[in-house]
Amino acid sequence: MEIPRHWRLQKQRYALVGEECPHCNAKIFPPRDVCPECGGEAKEPYRFSGRGSVYSYTVMNNAPAGFEESLPYTIALVKLDEGPTVTAQLTDLGEKEVAIGMPVEMVTRRIKEDGGRQGMLVYGYKFRPVMG
Amino acid sequence: MNKVYIAGIGQTNVGEHWDRSLRNLSAEAILAAMHDAGDNVAVDALYAGNLLASSASKQSNIGSMIASNAGLTGVETFSAEAGEASGAAALRMGYLAVRSGYARTALVVGVEKYTDMVGSNIDRVIAHSVDYDFEAMEGMTPQTLAGLLMQRYIHAYDVPRTSLCALPITAHANAVHNPFAMFRRAISDQTYSRAGLVCDPLNLMDVAPYADGAAVIMLTADETIARKNDKPLVEIAASAGAVDTLALHDRADALVFSAVTASTQKALALAGMTLEEIDLYELWDAFSIYGVLSVEAVGLAAMGAGWRWIADNADLALVTMGGNKARGFPLGAAGVYQAVEAAMQLRGAAGNNQIRGAQRAMIQALGGPASNVITHILARTV
């Protein structure tokens, strides 16, 4: 199990907290130590709205260890409304066909089991189609 | 600075070697390369290219293991890791050592032992090469990245779903005559379009099969050694690397392999060559979409036209010995296989797959979706 590692990332996983560059105001997710837009040091936390749209997607029919119970699952590149793109699973799809451009919003879900059935449950962001 | 010549080459069959270890595979390729070099050549250094050993085989410090098992006492050694481009990184280490004069003769060993672990566990280990915190933690593997890129490519350029078939078909046709290849069988359009989906729209024929194997190049500054046994003289004319973001989501345009462009341009400039002077291009077909985006990034085709360029292309030979798709894809060893295959072409020793009059070859290895790109140019000299 990787408890320190999951703990360290809880703000990103639970609340989609990235950064706002203090020099050029670029919104950054996942957080980086240097702003990709202006090269300045980036340290100011910024909470994203969790709204975005599907840039691309694919369906996993085989899973790496730890994700077998989710099969089959859809992974997408989600372009957030604030600019950056994030990699995440899509959820709550029901009968809905996924399409590039589809509006989605962030929800918190169980991501994986770290250490098998007796292991730790890791929660984090997934994205679902915007309701209504 | 020294010229860097290829003194010897060696390779094992690519495949699932259940009965053989990292030691056995690397030794076979080392001994073959030393024999090709004319035997009794003193070696100063051994650089190993490998991706999985520390996790799949639970073995680190593989340079020591490989060197001592092959009876190479007293050499300097360590391994290079650059994701799937690790073999090319080791080649670059060997090149730098010989070119600088710090080593007279160096062995570059690409070795991968994929089948030391099986099932979803080996998929998890291979996923260590993507961004662990923000890609692998979402259930992603390298295949997911290729699926996402192919889906976007088809959407962005409105191309048919089967548009990427030309590269795997070429690779399989070429592997028929490569005795070291994993799949020595040609495939048809129908085989491609009927293949099962892996990561929609990516199908099984878009994916290079992971495998075991070892390939070795002996580099030397000594022209006499390189000419032993009347071998045609082949040199490494350029070596260059470039990075892009590790994670695909961090790129402004995912369909632009900018590190391929940068690495190619650096290598061509160092060699004093233009792309038109290259006779064969061993591009990186870990996935067929990577090959398509690569020919666009090096400037052979416009964005969105790479798939058609590959289908129509008669001017520049690609994946001449089967590429990763059909020769088989021994991950961190594949970059050294490319070098061995290019050397065979430039020596005129590629058999039925010989590119007539080949003088210059460009080989290119990609770690991840062009997150780390290492390009070498090999040239026949007189």
* Biggest sheet, spatial arrangement of strands of chain B: 1-7-4-2-3
What is the subunit arrangement here? heterodimer
As residue ranges, the low-confidence spans of chain A are none
- Determine the CATH topology of chain A: OB fold (Dihydrolipoamide Acetyltransferase, E2P)
Strand content of chain B: 15-25%
Structural class of the secondary structure composition of chain B? alpha/beta
**Biggest interchain interface, per-side counts:** A-B, 36 and 37 residues
Major β-sheet profile of chain A? 5 strands, antiparallel
Number of strands of chain B: 12
Major sheet of chain B:
5 strands, mixed
Instruction: Label the overall shape of chain A.
Output: globular
Q: What is the CATH class of chain A? A: Mainly Beta
Number of helices of chain B: 14
Structural class of chain A: mainly beta
How many helices of chain A does DSSP assign?
A: 2
CATH superfamily of the largest domain in chain B: Thiolase/Chalcone synthase
Which CATH class of the largest domain in chain B applies here?
Alpha Beta
- Strand percent estimate of chain A: 35-45%
In the residues of chain A, how many domains can be counted?
1
Task: Give a structural overview.
- The complex is a heterodimer of chains A (132) and B (382).
- By secondary structure, chain A is mainly beta.
- Chain A has helices spanning 3-8, 10-15; strands at 17-20, 27-28, 44-47, 51-60, 73-80, 85-90, 103-114, 120-129.
- In chain A, β5 (73-80) and β6 (85-90) form a beta hairpin.
- Chain A is globular, with a radius of gyration of 16 Å.
- The mean pLDDT of chain A is 92.
- Chain B has 2 domains: 5-118 and 210-233, Thiolase/Chalcone synthase (Peroxisomal Thiolase, Chain A, domain 1); 130-208 and 238-381, Thiolase/Chalcone synthase (Peroxisomal Thiolase, Chain A, domain 1), CATH 3.40.47.10.
- Chain B is built from 14 helices and 12 strands.
- In chain B, strands 1-7-4-2-3 form a 5-stranded mixed beta sheet, with helices on both faces. A 5-stranded mixed beta sheet of chain B has the order 8-12-11-9-10.
- In chain B, β5 (197-199) and β6 form a beta hairpin.
- The longest helix of chain B is centred in the middle third of the chain and has 16 residues, at 142-157.
- Chain B starts with a strand and ends with a strand.
- Classes of the chains: A mainly beta (132), B alpha/beta (382).
- At the A-B interface, β4, β5 and β6 of A face α5, α6 and β5 of B.
